[in-house]
Amino acid sequence: MSEIDPELVAAVREAWSRALGIDASSIDPETSDFFDIGGYSLLALQVIGGLIEHSDAASKERSFEIEGRLVEDLFQQPFCVAQARILQEERVVISESQANAS
């Protein structure tokens, strides 16, 4: 597996930060568990929806497929890097500046 794009990791980290109301610097992308730092299932869906909304996942069908993968993976591997890895595997383009636009 190639290295995960740091911009994708930063975008996921920033989305988590906004949703959880905590400073992004307090979220370690590799070890901070979304649910241990205050996340819950409905909030997870909102975060993932926001990431997809600010991405290049053009078609609704593709968006639903990617969201499904992200939701499933978040419950299995609740870390920023895991979410960024899926976005990268799906070749989704999102930048921190796009994620900050909401």
Automatic annotation (TrEMBL):
What the entry lists under Pfam families is as follows: PP-binding
User: SUPFAM superfamilies of this UniProt entry?
Assistant: ACP-like
InterPro entries documented for this protein: ACP-like_sf, PP-bd_ACP
- Carrier domain location is 3-91
Q: Which domain of life is it from?
A: Bacteria
This protein is called Phosphopantetheine binding protein
- Species of origin reads Microbacterium lacticum
